[in-house]
């Protein structure tokens, strides 16, 4: 897909080497096409890695999209160069004066912190509320999903006895949904989290539907408002090496680090990871763009409400 990305975004050169077609703004302006507008609120510490992971998946349809990166006013990232943030990110208040066809809210490294103690909690609540009437469909990922479920529906998060870490078999509960078109009966999803949301808490809430669940990892995908919101508790967007990098980064630094499950060949961390989720990830994101964004968004973007 011809993604319209800011000139000089690092992800452009990375993905070109993977033979993925992306288009910078200079080339895109020569085409008379109304692109879908997608905004990404990237709360992850390693911004460039997350940008590349998401752009890789969004590149899998023939539709042209214009990608915007949103940053918070109430929080300054510590692990991304200031120059990168200034070049490619816009303040939330600026972008919230616009409407968007789609939005992605990433996870954040604050999952064990009570929501109200997160330093940007008030700002992110205002972004969640804005998205409901200014975005056609929103994907909330990992902590972003738990935070949105708590904000909109009061669904609590629960601390796990040990980190849920690895790649887990997942079952589509309602495979007839357009989001699962082309899926197998079982698909894989990476998880990396210390907390969870529970089926019994979600089932108490009218309007929420669990649409994918894992025997080992629990609730995996929840939806609401007819597909205008998806809450994904895992990380379909992860690259092949992400869990490996995280495991080896933490090994020896904490006493609770365990090897990611169902990930390495022969369960041996000296061997290569087995990528079992790539096809499901590409299908999920292309189905979301096609059936819940492109086919549902008004021709006049200002009619989104």
TrEMBL record:
One of its GO terms (cellular component) is cytoplasm. Its EC number is 2.3.1.31. SUPFAM superfamilies: Class I glutamine amidotransferase-like. It is an enzyme of class 2 (transferase). Keywords: Acyltransferase, Amino-acid biosynthesis, Cytoplasm, Methionine biosynthesis, Transferase. Coiled coil: none annotated. It holds the Pfam family HTS. The keyword Transport does not apply. Substrate binds at residues 163, 192, 249. It is found in: Cytoplasm. It catalyses: L-homoserine + acetyl-CoA = O-acetyl-L-homoserine + CoA. The record marks 111 as: Important for acyl-CoA specificity. GO terms for molecular function: homoserine O-acetyltransferase activity; homoserine O-succinyltransferase activity. The active site is at residues 142, 235, 237. GO terms for biological process: L-methionine biosynthetic process from homoserine via O-succinyl-L-homoserine and cystathionine. InterPro entries: Class_I_gatase-like, HST_MetA, MetA_family. It comes from the Bacteria. Pathway: Amino-acid biosynthesis; L-methionine biosynthesis via de novo pathway; O-acetyl-L-homoserine from L-homoserine: step 1/1. The record marks 192 as: Important for substrate specificity. Belongs to the MetA family. NCBIfam families: metA. Transfers an acetyl group from acetyl-CoA to L-homoserine, forming acetyl-L-homoserine. This is Homoserine O-acetyltransferase. It comes from Segatella buccae ATCC 33574.
